[in-house]
Amino acid sequence: MLQNNAWTGTLFLAGIFYDSMLMGFAAVVAVVTGTLTARLLRYDEADIEAGLYGFSATLVGVALTFYFNPVPLVWAAVVLGSVAATWLQHQFIRRGWPGFTFPFILVTWILLYLFHHVYQPGAAASVAGAMPVSDDFTTATNGFGEVIFQGSVIAGIIFFVAVFISSPTAGLYGVCASLLGAFISLEFAEPATDIHMGLFSFNAVLCAITFAGNKPRDGIWVLFSVVLSVLLDVGMLQQHMAVLTFPFVAACWITLGMQHLLQKMGIKIKD
């Protein structure tokens, strides 16, 4: 979630293990694979230490064990997918492009297609939430949990605390974004269960964290990106697409494009 903080990362891993030992193990395998790949290919050491070659790989590992029965071929895909995500991440980094989680998205979309149409390993057992999700508090925290495919309230709380200790501003913006995502999706008459699970909030949370800052204009960009991500989220889910974090990435690219365009036009949003 864009936090360069070791304690934050530790809490993320703890939250994943709390919900699913299997996903936690997959996350470790994937992040180790991604990091080793970056070292073997001699990518920049500072970028490796910052975790830039680990997060997309980690998401690939968690996603595959979230969707599929962990047969040997799925584990092989976790490793190969982590290598591919790391290589793709490097293509963005060396060109100075904001790739965010797009390497994870692209690799996972390809693997989802292959496992649905070429070889079907079977669906994974669902990860049930440990507590009921029926109020604003749990809706807000679930928006954090679903960023890394976790459905329990406890995992969501752990993820929120993880972001908050690294950046209180980003954490609080994320809570507001999660609730706003739920409200907007409710206006589109989306299923209440899906809304409370955070399925329409986690991309909004990521957008809020990305553009969070202490100036009023930061709030404007947070609002713009969050609303855009939720609209994309709703549209993709209505088309039965594998959303993943694409609404977040697309909304951030568009928002950054808007900022660049306004800058070129000499228009400055006052602080």
UniProtKB/TrEMBL annotation:
Superkingdom in the source lineage: Bacteria
Membrane topology: Multi-pass membrane protein
One of the record's GO cellular component terms: plasma membrane
Major localization listed first in the record, in broad terms: membrane
UniProt xrefs under Gene3D superfamilies: Ammonium transporter AmtB like domains
GO molecular function annotation: urea transmembrane transporter activity
UniProt KW keywords: Cell membrane, Membrane, Transmembrane, Transmembrane helix
Subcellular location: Cell membrane
Residues annotated as transmembrane: 12-38, 100-119, 147-165, 172-189, 195-213, 220-237, 243-262
Site, as annotated: Important for channel permeability: T245
Pfam families: UT
Family: Belongs to the urea transporter family.
Name of the protein: Urea transporter
Organism of derivation: Chitinophaga varians
